[in-house]
Amino acid sequence: MLTLHQELLAESRKHGVFVFIEHHKRFDPAYSDAKARAKGLGHFNYFYSYMSQSKSQLETFKAWAGKDSDISYYLNSHHLDISEWMVPEYRPVKVTASGSKGTSEDLGHGQIMWYNPFYMKYSPDEEGNFNGQTGYGYISFEKFVDSVTAFKEGKVTLDDLDKRGLPTLKNTIATTAILEAGRRSLDENRTVQILEENGEWTLK
């Protein structure tokens, strides 16, 4: 996955194509506020991520995620991206992952279904029109469309778009490295190192 990410980045530069990763949590107001506040909290030195998923959603996602994907790739990736976005000058060095099997139902717990109106407001306005423009899911797509438009019109370069803090291929390499390292760590039951030298990322 990490190799493919870097190959895609090279091809996008070669052919002048803008690629935007749909890491929509960057546009969630709670996360945007957290990023702004984090600047005054000192050095960022530890990140822990825990994810769980309702059984019904696992069934939904496995239909398109494929056998090479897991909960980290389609859900935890957003939270890993937030850490990369908050401290882009930092580099991850190792990943040690742990996992569990089964569901809460196996332990006698029920399920709760949640709806997130901050991602996308599906209820119409007072006139019956679409009213989801303020949701961070909508804003993510809006940022992509605005960026593509500006790029095609020659108003910005790919480097300019990278500097805006958008989830571009260049700005999300560390997230991809952590995701693959986490998968390998689970599969091989070991810590996986992340190396970056002269812009080239590898796992060991």
Q: What is the gist of this entry?
A:
This protein is mainly α and 204 residues long. It has 7 helices and 3 strands, in the order ααααβαααββ.
Any overview of this molecule?
The structure is a single chain. The protein is mainly alpha-helical. Helix content is 44%, strand content 6%. It has a three-stranded antiparallel sheet with strand order 1-2-3. Helix 4 packs across helix 7 (173-188). The two termini are 14 Å apart. The mean pLDDT is 86.
Chart the SSEs and their pairings:
Elements: H1 2-15, H2 29-38, H3 55-65, H4 71-86, E1 94-95, H5 136-152, H6 158-163, H7 173-188, E2 192-197, E3 200-203
Helix pairs in contact: 4-7
Q: Give a count of the beta strands, DSSP E runs of length 2 or more.
A: 3
Q: Helical percent range?
A: 40-55%
Largest sheet features: 3 strands, antiparallel
Number of helices, counting only DSSP H or I runs of 4 residues or more: 7
**Structural class by SSE content:** mainly alpha
Rounded to the nearest angstrom, the radius of gyration is: 19 Å
Within the largest sheet, what's the order of strands?
1-2-3
